[in-house]
Amino acid sequence: MKVPCDVAEVNDLELSDGLGAEISDLPGCHIDCRRCGREESFFFNKRLNVKACLELMKEDCPRKEANEYVTYSQYDGDESYEL
To answer: Is 67 a domain residue?
Structure first.
């Protein structure tokens, strides 16, 4: 089943180096699943991160479903990954 997701560009992601140092206000993308409400965020590299995030959602679905996660524009028939 194709599951539409909302994709938004964000500029407030944080990165921790594991040693206590943090970098904030990093650009990225945020994706919300319209089926279950799950949210994922990735650091920004438009095309690659949207695809990677959608694949991560497919591999780690909390409902254990084998869905095909797509951007909402793809769900409407537009194959673009543009934000």
So the answer is: yes
Residue 55 has pLDDT above 60, yes or no: yes
Residue 14: inside a domain, yes or no?
A: yes
pTM: 0.67
Nearest to 26 by CA among 37, 12, 7, 41: 12
Is 13 a domain residue?
yes
Please, which pLDDT band fits residue 50 given cuts at 50, 70 and 90? confident
Q: In three state form, how does the secondary structure of the chain look?
A: CEEEEEEEEEEEEEEECCCCCEEEEEEEEEEEECCCCCEEEEECCHHHHHHHHHHHHHHCCCCCCCCEEEEHHHHCCCCCCCC
In a domain, 20, yes or no: yes
Average pLDDT over residues 12-36: 82
Query: Which amino acid, residue 60?
Result: D
